Amino acid sequence: MLIKSIHAVSMCYKELAIIPVFENDQKNVDWLEPIDRNLYQSVKKVLDSGDMKGKAGSSLSFYCEEKPFERVLLVGAGKRRDFTCEKLRRLVAGIDSVAQSFNIRAYTIFVQPLLPFPVNNYSAGKATAESISLSRYEFDCFKSKKEKNKKELNVRLFGAPKGAFQNGLHDGAIIAANVNMVRNLINTPSNELTPESIADRSIKLCEGNSRLTCTVMDENAMREHGMNGILSVGKGSANPPRFVIIDYAGENKGKPIVIVGKGVTFDSGGISIKPWNGMEKMKYDMAGAGAVLGIIKIAAELNFPHHIIGLIPTAENMPAATAYKPGDVIAMASGTTVEVISTDAEGRLLLADALHYASDTCKPQALIDLATLTGACMVALGNKAMAIMGNNKGLIRRFIQNDEGSGERVWELPLWEDYDELIKSETADIKNVGGPGAGTIIGGIFLKKFVGKNIPWVHLDIASTAWMDNNEKGYFSKGATGAGVRIICEVLRNWDK
Ligand code: BES
Ligand code: MN
Ligand code: ZN
């Protein structure tokens, strides 16, 4: 394994010793004296000089005069009382990024100064492993010359707690590897990643695991189910739509937890075409679908006990002579009729059929959907949180309780009945656009109409967090983030607690 905990100096990588330093606490290195006197003396001298004040983001490196360690990197951890799980992620990402710039193959982090961790030890271990693996991600599948910028440096953690922290390290590595798999899918352009290839990749993902089963509906099968929402969105494209069903049979029998992800492989807007500016980014409109694949894979690899079903309605939204048009009325799988006001509000049409299928066929104990549904979500929250809406306080609370531990924030928006009138249509039962305000809420209000009675449901609008334009968190490079995977997995892992 890339990251390993050790408890003897003899097992440390000696090329680089990394020591976190808190602000206002920067002279406190007494813990190091019994571990290694030479290292202690070099570090003490530098800290006493006042050159390293522990400010978050700062670092200072120097060569040691005496063996065994060759060099030292002091990294600022900020104020101890402000230290959170997210700060730990950023700290670790920062450490790895500085270490990447050195000519080394491995390094050792001394964990002692960070103890006790700001969150439980499991989350701290998970955060550490995730952060290293997420921050080393590079998307170079489409570069003809692969110039790897990031090295697979080995990491040793000295003095990390045993038990839960180690489990966290283990799970974090698996989770992050799959988040990176999801990021690859999302970053893949739509000429390569079509609805059919999402279906093929789903089938591949299930191969060789008797607990995973994949079923793919083509257009004929969807017609039989009356899934005219999905079919309409896909009508204008040369790449036909699909509906993917993945079943993970955890040990516990019983009602499944169903997770639905929006899989629009490219969203041009259709006849209500989007402006050219930034349209290339609309390859990320299948981020929800990608997340579903990642979550199912993690559930299988971490042996989650529950029955989980992933549903992916997937289509390409294009303008064409065959495309659906504003003014069209669609009879959805549920029987509800929808007047199309904008062909660019396509995600809710796909999801509606999938939510109806989930309610009607899967009889879920809980229903979760995630989608890059509205640009308004970015207006409301920036890229700091995804929006959460739903019909069940308990289910929403599960997400709120797991956001710090997972590293993904959620913020609740209301789905009051007052908003219902905004999507009333003169011609059909409802229309697919309301407004002008409350864009994200209206998306949720629309979806709610397709969720079965008494089924606990939440909708995550991940348009805000699924894509980063820069690396402001430290562990995400520009591009897809794999939003939703980490928080949903954390909710699932803590389901029975
Ligand atoms: N996929 C978009 C939402 C989106 C926009 C995600 C920007 C990420 C970044 C969605 O299909 C869409 O186009 N929504 C419209 C809805 C409107 C027509 C009611 C939007 O947000 O403009
Ligand atoms: Mn759209
Ligand atoms: Zn879309």
Broad CATH class of the largest domain: Alpha Beta
- Tell me the radius of gyration: 25 Å
Distinct small-molecule ligands in the complex? ligand BES, manganese (II) ion, zinc ion
Structural class: alpha/beta
Task: Briefly say what this structure is.
By secondary structure, the chain is an alpha/beta fold. The protein is built from 14 helices and 20 strands. The protein folds into 2 domains: 3-136, 3-Layer(aba) Sandwich (Leucine Aminopeptidase, subunit E, domain 1), CATH 3.40.220.10; 177-493, Zn peptidases (Aminopeptidase), CATH 3.40.630.10.
Structure explained in plain terms:
This protein has 497 residues and is of the alpha/beta class. It has 2 domains: 3-136, Leucine Aminopeptidase, subunit E, domain 1; 177-493, Aminopeptidase (3-Layer(aba) Sandwich). Helices cover 33% and strands 20% of the residues. It is built from 14 helices and 20 strands. The strands form 4 sheets. Strands 7, 8, 9, 10, 11, 14, 15, 16 and 18 form a 9-stranded mixed β-sheet that branches. It has a 6-stranded mixed β-sheet with strand order 1-6-5-2-4-3, with helices on one face. β10, α8 and β11 (307-317) form a beta-alpha-beta unit. The chain starts with a strand and ends with a helix. The model has no long low-confidence stretch (mean pLDDT 96).
